[in-house]
Every structure is written in C-alpha cells, then in structure tokens.
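ok so for the tutorial part 2 we go from a plain amino acid sequence to predicted structure tokens. step 1 is just haveing the sequence, like this:
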Amino acid sequence: MALDPAETSVLRHLAELGVDHEIMPCDPDLADTAQFCAAYGIDPGEAANTIVEIGKSEPPMYVACIVLATTRLDVNNAVRRRLGVRKASFASGDQTRELTGMLIGGVTAFGLPAEMPVWIDAGVMERPEIVLGGGSRSCKIRCAPSALLAITTAEVVEGLANPIPSEPEAG
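step 2 — the prediction. this is what the tokens look like for a chain of 171 residues:
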C-alpha cells in the first residue's frame, strides 16, 4: 500500500532523528482524538494533539503546539504572547494542510517544515509515553515525550495549555 506523502516525510524524519517509536495503524475514520482513544483503548491523558497556530502579523507567524488531549491550548494568552502578536488563532484544516501537508487528525511534530517552531506543553513531558498523529489519518506514533526534543525547533513551554474543566455533576 502506497503511503501518503506526508506520512512518508514523517517516517523519513523519524529515521533521520533516530528516535525510538512505534507506528500504530489507525482507521482514518477514527483518527480524531476522542474516537481514536475510544476505539483503540488509549487513555486520553496519553494522547497528544499537534495543533498549528497562526499569529496574525505581516508576514503571518506559524507554530505547531503539542498538548495533551486532556488539556486546552491557551491560544489567547500563552500562544499570542509568545508569538508577540495581538491576535492568534487555530489554523484551519486547509491552512494546516497547506503548511504541513497533513490533514487534521494526522498532524504531528515530526516531518514539519524545518523552520516551524514546535512548542510542547510541559505537561506532555510528564507522561511516560504519548500517542500523536502519524502524518496521515491512517496511523499514529507512540513514543516517549523526550523524542520530541530531537526536533531542532522544539521547545518545552510551561503553561502552554490548561486543564479542560470537568463538567459539574447533575443533581
């Protein structure tokens, strides 16, 4: 089976970095984090999402942020301030594909454009292992969080994400 070009780029980057990892095949229809975790028995606290952000400036600034699925990226404060812009937002699916070659549900820090900064929420580094996109919606990558630090533009950022508030119990 022919690999998606982005998936091929990701696998090449992983090989170049020499990081220990496992490729986990995935049904593309179950690639979004909540569905993936439920279908494959993955703890959402182990799932790490790679989210491309755009700092609204001329020219625009881009960053890939990695946060646990149990947290919410702090776009309006942490990302905006670190980028030094007045406004930041999530890249759309089309913008993400144009910038990375990857579809939402498969975006990963590996295989990104060499100049794109990668910010990792400090909480990600506390996990023994993480599962993140594999470059396409057909696979995921399981690795130690420290593998992300092999990426030359990677940086651990304290407070990049906040816990998702739990729903109050009815009663």
